[in-house]
Design goal:
The radius of gyration is 24 Å and the shape is flat. It is of the alpha+beta class. The chain folds into 2 domains: 3-70, lambda repressor-like DNA-binding domains (434 Repressor (Amino-terminal Domain)); 91-202, no CATH class. The mean pLDDT is 90. Helix 2 crosses helix 3 (32-39) and helix 6 packs antiparallel against helix 7 (129-156). Helices cover 64% and strands 9% of the residues.
């Protein structure tokens, strides 16, 4: 999707309705700064207000995503292109999230090791044991929080593929958190066939 083109299209349709950025923002319950960002191509409307925006501008969601009015001749072609672009952008975002998951794991582990090292150093210097246990507790709490957050990222980014039926789906958070795993391959029950298998993480739905 071309954010610049979409932004210009939003501005054009807003003006056709005789509305200022402030008036459009008030109608949507957002700030005029958000509208300005759309129209300059710096961001896209959130999915939660997209339908209301299209209703106000008297356009379809497909026209909004394409950044132009669609005729009957090119409607299906433009719609398919917009959907494919959305899928592509989601896959790219999921790849970035999975890289972030690795970074979070590495940094939290290093922080835990660093605190343990400081705690051991204090013990060697003859400092009270409670200092070691305090540092150990802080390190473990941040590590557990980081792991829980990393698992959440892994759950929502991409899909898991059932080894039995090939179904690709997004599992519940608890299923991912408590499932035995080897890297990003987890032993879970498929919601489609009902069988348990080692399911690998994949990016695309198909």
């Amino acid at each position: 999707m071309d954010q610049i083109q979409i932004g210009k299209f939003i501005a054009e349709k807003r003006k056709e309705q005789g509305m200022t950025q402030m008036q459009l923002a008030e109608a949507l319950g957002i700030t005029d700064r958000a509208v300005s960002k759309w129209e300059t191509g710096r961001s896209l409307p959130d999915a939660s207000i997209m339908l209301e925006l299209c209703k106000i501008l008297k356009i379809t969601v497909n026209e909004l995503l394409c950044g132009e009015e669609l005729s009957m001749e090119n409607y299906n072609e433009k719609t398919e292109k917009a959907l494919l672009e959305m899928v592509k952008q989601k896959e790219e975002a999921d790849r970035r999230l999975l890289k972030m998951e690795i970074l979070i794991g590495i940094l939290s582990a290093l922080f835990l090791v660093a605190l343990l090292g400081v705690g051991i150093a204090f013990m060697v210097m003859g400092k009270p044991m409670w200092i070691f246990w305090l540092l150990f507790g802080i390190g473990m709490v941040q590590f557990i929080v980081a792991v829980a957050f990393a698992v959440r990222i892994e759950q929502v980014a991409g899909y898991y593929e059932c080894a039995e039926c090939g179904n690709r789906y997004i599992p519940q958070y608890g299923s991912v958190l408590f499932a035995p795993h080897m890297g990003r391959t987890r032993h879970m029950k498929c919601p489609k066939c009902g069988k348990k298998s080692w399911q690998k993480k994949v990016i695309s739905k198909e």
